[in-house]
Amino acid sequence: MLNNSGKRLVIACGGTGGHLFPGIAVAEAWTAEGGEVLLLISEKQIDAMATEGYGHLRFERMPSIAMPGVFSLKMPGFLLAFLKSFFSCRKLLRSFGAHAVLGMGGFTSAAPLAAGKSMGLPTFIHESNAIPGKANRLNARFSLAVLVGFEACARCFGSGKRVEVVGTPLRPSVVSRPSKEEGLAYFGLEAGKKTLMVMGGSQGARRVNELVAASLPAFSDADIQVLHISGPGDYDLVKPSYDATPGVGHLLSFCSDMQFALAAADLAICRSGASTLTELGYYRLPSVLIPYPYAAEDHQTRNAEIFSAPGAAELWPQRDLNEENFGGKIISLILDREKLAAMSEAAERLALGDASQRVCEVIEGSLKK
Question: How far apart are CA 143 and CA 26, in angstroms?
Answer without folding.
Answer: 17
